[in-house]
Design a protein that fits this description.
12 strands; globular; 8 helices
Length: 247
């Protein structure tokens, strides 16, 4: 099965459309959405409806911290901009869309893989895997050979050898990486809707579950249109700038 893995969509219709079209063109068999469908962007209802439609076709989807945030009034753990957008987003969603979000799981397993939004050691606490130490902690918290996670808006690939040593591999777009069965792996596809590595192109990955081959992609999209929507919605201008500059 060729699985498209998308995370941190962040209500960015233009980026989501571009990545879904890109994956469909490459004959993706199935889709996994690793949370944060909403937050930061101006099209939360469209993104949630789109993911719901993919779920009806068998896609997998997880809860992210921004998704959870829209269900609760008090989210002091979020930064002011994120909290402001969550409050705005709450008014944009229907009861049906909120019910869909409320029922999302924190993790799921597929064959030899674990899928979480933030990390494997405590998915509900939203702690970041932002270095080799945290990657090792996450990999040691599960028996899965391969862990896929989002939350960090930069694409990364970590591997652990049989001696427990962890190293990071910097992924290159469109370059297939064989995931050896002799290692453990942690995959961060990067953010579809709000990349933060200085490259505004959307991120996602394709994973061949039979061949154990992983390919990262950067997909250009109409960042200006997405940014203008953020401004037109009255959301913070810094979020529009972040889309334009990838950080």
């Amino acid at each position: 099965m060729l699985l498209a893995v998308l995370t941190d969509l962040h209500a960015n219709r233009e980026a989501v459309e571009a990545c879904l079209a890109h994956a469909e063109e490459r004959n993706a068999d199935q889709f996994a959405f690793l949370g944060d469908l909403i937050g930061y962007g101006a099209d939360p209802a469209w993104v949630v409806d789109t993911v719901m439609a993919y779920v009806n076709r068998g896609a997998y989807v997880l809860m992210g911290n921004h998704d959870l945030g829209v269900l609760h009034d008090d989210r002091k753990d979020m930064n002011p901009n994120a909290r402001l957008v969550v409050e705005w987003t709450r008014q944009q969603l229907t009861p049906q869309q909120k019910d869909f979000i409320r029922d999302l799981p924190m993790q799921f397993e597929l064959e030899q893989c674990l899928f979480v939004h933030a990390n494997a050691w405590a998915p509900e606490r939203w702690e970041y895997v932002d270095g080799a130490m945290e990657a090792a902690r996450s990999m040691r918290a599960t028996n899965a050979q391969i862990t896929f996670c989002g939350h960090v808006h930069t694409p990364s690939l970590y591997h652990m050898n049989q001696a427990g040593k962890v190293a990071e591999f910097s992924p290159v777009s469109d370059l297939s990486v064989p995931l050896s069965k002799l290692r453990r792996w942690l995959v961060q596809p990067g953010s579809v809707g709000q990349p933060r590595d200085g490259n505004p192109a959307a991120c996602y990955a394709l994973f061949d579950t039979q061949q154990l081959e992983l390919t990262f992609f950067r997909v250009p999209y109409d960042t200006e249109a997405a940014a203008q929507k953020v401004l037109a919605a009255g959301l913070p201008a810094s979020l529009a700038q972040r889309l334009m500059h990838g950080g």
